[in-house]
Design goal:
The complex is a heterodimer of chains A (about 300) and B (about 450). With about 300 residues, chain A is of the alpha/beta class. Chain A contains 11 helices and 10 strands. The chains are: A alpha/beta (about 300), B alpha+beta (about 450). The interface between A and B is medium-sized, with 24 and 29 residues.
Chain lengths: ~300, ~450
C-alpha cells in the first residue's frame, strides 16, 4: 500500500471494541476511533474520511443518525454499520436514511470485515480523487428532462399505478406481473429503477435483485414489502445494494422521494462509472440449478447485453 | 312414550331441560267425569298407572276437568265406611277441580315455577298438560324436577367451562406480557452480549495470528543461534534467516506483545461480562419457577437493573441505588423479578428528558421489605392514576404496551401477601412502592 492510505473512522460506545478494531486494521488504513458519534461527524466535516464504521445502539446518538449526517456532509464517505443487534427499524433506516454500503453483525468475521472496509475505502479513494462537482451540490436535474425507464414488478398492479401517478410523463413506467416479464424488459432496455414488491422471503425476486445488481450496478432497486424481516433486508443490502426498503403499503411521500432520489442517482452513476464501485455487492449464492429454461435465457440475454454495453 | 314407565327416560328429560314440557307428556288415559270412585281405585291398581300420583278427569270434549289423586282416594277409603259411602259416587264429586294445567309449550323453568307455586306439601298431585286440542296427557312433578336438575347441571358445566376459559386466557395474557417484556429485553441483551463477543472473538483471532508469528520468530532465532554457537552445522541460508527475523520482529516486538496483553485483558473482561449477562438471563428465564424460595430482594433489584441497563444507558438515565440491609424473604423470585423489571422499564420509558434519574431504595420496615422505585419522568395524569392497575389500561402507543404489565405486577404482589402503591405528579415524576412480607403467609404463592 502506498502513502495514500485511506482514512477510516470507527465509532462504538464500547472502548474495547475500538481497541480491538484498531489492532485489526493497524497498517491497513489511517485509523480514527471515537465513542462519540458527534465527534465522528465533526471529523468527517473537517477532513477526508473514506469510510466510517459505526455501531447502531449508542447512548448519545444512534448509528443510523451518525451515518445519515455523514452522508449529508460527505456523501463520498462510505458507510458501514457494525452492530450487535439488527432490529428491523434500524435496518430499514440504515438503507433509507443512511444509504449504507454494508450491514455487518457482531461478532464479526475478521477477514470479511477487513475486505469489506478496504473495498469501501478503495471506492471512496477514487471518488475523492475524481475531479468533479461534489455530490452535495447536486444540480438537481430537472425531472422532466429525465427520460428514464422504471420497471415495476408487482403482481397486483397497485404499486405500478402509484408509481405512475407520482412521476412526470417523461418517465416511462412499465408494469410486469411476473419476474420473467420484468427481466425481459431489463434485457431489452436500459432501466433506471426497478420497484419490486416482495411478498415472501424465499422467493426468486430477492435473488433476482441480487443477481441483477451484479450485472446492472447502475439500476437501482426499491423494494416494497410487508415483511418485517431484518435478515431479508440485510441480505438485500449486502448482496443486492437495494436503494430503498419500504414497508407495504408504501407511504406516498416516501415512495415519491425514493423514486426521485433513485432517478437522480442513476443519472449520476451513468455520468461517472467510477461511482459504480460504491454499489458493488457481495458474491451471493450461485444461480439455482433448477432455474426454469425461460428465466435462464433471459438472464443470459441480460448478461450479454451488459457485456455489449460495457464493451 | 312407554306408559309402563313410572317416569320419563333420560333422553326426554334432557330434551325438556333445554326446552318445554312436550317431551315429558305421559299419554295417560283420561277418566270420564262420571266414572265411579271404586272404578277409579281399580285404575290406580293397574301396573301402567303405578308411577302416577294422580289421574286426569277429562270431559268428552277433551277439556280437562280435574285430577283425582291416589292420596285422596286413600283418605276416603280410610274413613269409616268411606268405601261404602263414596264408592258409587262419580269421581267428579271428589276430584280436585282446580288442578295445575300447563300447555305443552311451557318452558321448563316456567313449569317449575308454576309447580312450586301451586303444589302443596306433601306432593300428592301431578299435573295436566294441554295442547291446542285440549287434554294432551299428564306431567309428573318428578320429571320436571329431573329436567331442572339436568339443566342446572348443564349450566354448572357451562360456568365451569367459562371459568376455565377465563383462567386460561388470563394465563395467556400473563404469558404474552412476559413475552413482550422478554422481547424488549432480548433486543437489548443480544446487543449487550454480541458487543463483548465481537471484541473477544477478534482479540482471540488476532492473538492466534500473533502467536504464529512469534512461533516463526522463535524458530528462526533458534536456527541462527544454533548456527552461531556451532550447535548445528551453519546453514547456508543464514542471511535469509536473519532477514526473516528482521521482518518478523517488526510484527512481534515488545510493544506488540504489550498490546496483545491489553487485548487479552479486555477479552477476560468481556468473557466475564457475557457470563454475568447469562446468569442474569437465567434468573429471568426461570419464569415457570413459581415456587417459594428464600431470596435477597437487593440481589433481585441488581439483576433487574442489569437487564434494563441497556435502556437506561441508551437514555443516559442515572440510577441512584440506596440498598438497605435486608433479610431474605419468602417469594417466587422469578415473579418478583417480573414486577421489578416492569416497574423499572416503565420508569425508564416515562423519562423523556436528558437528566433522567431513577431512585431505587430498599429497606426493612416491621416484618416487611419495602422497594421504592422513583423516576423523574413525565408522571401519570391524575385521571389515569386510579386505572393504571386495570388490565389492558395503557397510555403507551398501540403495539408498545400490552396494558398488562402493572395489572400482572399488582396480582403478583397481592399473591405474595404484599401491596403495591403509586404516587405521581405530572411533570415531576412517579413513585411506586412495593411492600412484601418477609415471611410468607400460609400456602399463598
Amino acid at each position: 500500500m502506498s502513502a495514500a492510505l485511506p482514512c477510516v473512522v470507527f465509532v462504538d460506545d464500547e472502548e474495547r471494541i475500538l481497541r480491538s478494531l484498531r489492532m485489526l486494521f493497524r497498517g491497513r488504513c489511517e485509523i480514527l476511533t471515537t465513542t462519540s458519534g458527534r465527534e465522528a461527524i465533526d471529523w468527517v466535516r473537517q477532513r477526508p474520511v473514506h469510510a466510517i464504521v459505526s455501531d447502531q445502539r449508542m447512548p448519545e446518538i444512534g448509528g443510523v443518525q451518525v451515518l445519515r449526517a455523514v452522508a449529508e456532509h460527505s456523501p463520498a464517505t462510505m458507510r458501514i454499520l457494525l452492530t450487535g443487534y439488527a432490529d428491523i427499524d434500524a435496518v430499514t433506516a440504515s438503507v433509507n436514511d443512511g444509504e449504507i454500503y454494508r450491514f455487518v453483525e457482531k461478532p464479526w468475521n475478521a477477514p470479511y470485515l477487513i475486505e469489506t472496509v478496504e473495498q469501501a475505502a478503495r471506492a471512496a479513494l477514487r471518488d475523492f480523487a475524481a475531479p468533479r462537482a461534489p455530490v452535495a451540490v447536486r444540480a438537481a436535474p430537472s425531472l422532466d428532462a429525465i427520460a428514464a425507464r422504471i420497471v415495476v414488478l408487482d403482481a397486483s398492479g397497485t404499486i405500478a399505478g402509484q408509481v405512475r401517478d407520482l412521476l412526470p410523463a417523461a418517465v416511462r413506467v412499465d408494469h410486469a406481473t411476473h419476474l420473467e416479464d420484468a427481466l425481459e424488459l431489463l434485457a431489452e432496455h436500459e432501466v433506471a429503477v426497478v420497484v419490486a414488491h416482495l411478498s415472501s422471503t424465499g422467493g426468486d425476486i430477492a435473488d433476482a435483485l441480487k443477481q441483477l445488481k451484479r450485472l446492472r450496478p447502475a439500476t437501482l432497486a426499491i423494494v416494497v414489502s410487508p415483511l418485517r424481516d431484518s435478515r431479508l433486508v440485510i441480505g438485500l443490502i449486502n448482496e443486492g445494494q437495494i436503494f430503498r426498503f419500504l414497508l407495504d403499503p408504501p407511504p406516498r411521500e416516501l415512495l415519491r422521494r425514493g423514486l426521485i432520489a433513485a432517478l437522480e442517482r442513476h443519472a449520476e452513476l451513468r455520468a461517472g462509472s467510477h461511482l459504480l464501485l460504491r454499489h458493488a455487492v457481495e458474491a451471493g449464492r450461485a444461480e439455482p440449478a433448477s432455474m426454469p429454461g425461460r428465466l435462464l435465457q433471459v438472464w443470459r440475454r441480460i448478461r450479454e447485453a451488459t457485456g455489449a454495453r460495457i464493451g | 312414550m312407554n306408559q309402563a314407565l313410572p317416569t320419563q327416560a333420560t333422553a326426554p328429560i334432557a330434551a325438556a331441560a333445554r326446552g318445554d314440557l312436550a317431551p315429558l307428556v305421559h299419554a295417560t288415559a283420561p277418566i270420564p267425569p262420571d266414572t265411579c270412585v271404586l272404578d277409579v281405585a281399580e285404575l290406580f291398581l293397574q301396573p301402567r298407572h303405578a308411577g302416577l300420583l294422580s289421574l286426569p278427569v277429562v270431559a268428552p270434549d277433551a277439556q280437562p276437568l280435574g285430577m283425582i289423586s291416589r292420596y285422596e282416594l286413600m283418605r276416603i277409603f280410610l274413613m269409616p265406611y268411606g268405601r261404602e259411602l263414596y264408592g258409587r259416587r262419580p269421581i267428579s264429586a271428589l276430584m280436585n277441580a282446580r288442578p295445575l294445567v300447563l300447555p305443552t309449550t311451557t318452558p321448563i323453568d316456567e313449569a317449575a315455577r308454576a309447580i312450586a307455586a301451586h303444589i302443596k306439601s306433601p306432593i300428592t298431585d301431578d299435573f295436566v298438560i294441554v295442547d291446542g286440542q285440549g287434554y294432551a296427557g299428564t306431567g309428573l312433578v318428578i320429571d320436571v324436577l329431573r329436567a331442572v336438575e339436568d339443566r342446572l347441571g348443564e349450566r354448572g358445566n357451562e360456568l365451569e367451562r367459562a371459568y376455565a376459559r377465563v383462567k386460561s386466557s388470563q394465563l395467556q395474557l400473563v404469558q404474552s406480557e412476559k413475552m413482550a417484556s422478554l422481547g424488549q429485553m432480548v433486543a437489548g441483551l443480544v446487543h449487550e452480549i454480541n458487543t463483548p463477543l465481537g471484541y473477544v472473538r477478534n482479540n482471540v483471532e488476532m492473538t492466534r495470528a500473533a502467536l504464529d508469528d512469534a512461533a516463526q520468530l522463535v524458530a528462526a532465532q533458534e536456527a541462527v543461534i544454533g548456527a552461531l554457537t556451532g550447535a548445528f552445522a551453519p546453514t547456508p541460508d543464514l542471511d535469509a534467516r536473519l532477514d526473516e527475523i528482521a521482518g518478523l520482529r517488526t510484527r512481534v516486538d515488545a510493544a506488540a506483545l504489550q498490546d496483545l496483553c491489553a487485548l487479552l485483558d479486555d477479552t477476560v473482561h468481556g468473557v466475564g461480562q457475557i457470563g454475568d449477562l447469562v446468569i442474569n438471563l437465567k434468573d429471568f428465564s426461570r419464569l415457570d419457577q413459581a415456587g417459594m424460595q428464600k431470596a435477597d430482594v437487593n440481589r433481585l433489584v441488581e439483576s433487574a437493573l442489569k437487564i434494563v441497563q441497556h435502556v437506561l444507558r441508551k437514555r443516559e438515565i442515572e440510577v441512584v441505588r440506596e440498598a438497605g440491609e435486608l433479610p431474605e424473604i419468602d417469594c417466587a423470585p422469578a415473579q418478583v423479578n417480573q414486577v421489578l423489571l416492569n416497574l423499572l422499564g416503565n420508569a425508564a420509558q416515562a423519562i423523556e428528558h436528558d437528566h433522567g434519574r431513577i431512585v431505587v431504595r430498599t429497606q426493612v420496615l416491621d416484618r416487611r421489605v419495602l422497594v421504592l422505585i422513583e423516576d423523574n419522568g413525565k408522571g401519570i395524569a391524575a385521571a389515569d392514576l386510579p386505572r393504571i392497575f386495570d388490565p389492558f389500561f395503557t397510555t403507551k402507543p398501540v403495539g408498545e404496551g400490552t396494558g398488562m404489565g402493572l395489572a400482572i405486577s399488582h396480582q403478583i404482589v397481592e399473591q405474595h401477601g404484599g401491596t403495591i402503591r403509586v404516587a405521581s405528579k405530572p411533570g415531576v415524576g412517579t413513585r411506586f412502592l412495593v411492600v412484601l412480607p418477609i415471611a410468607a403467609r400460609g400456602a399463598k404463592a
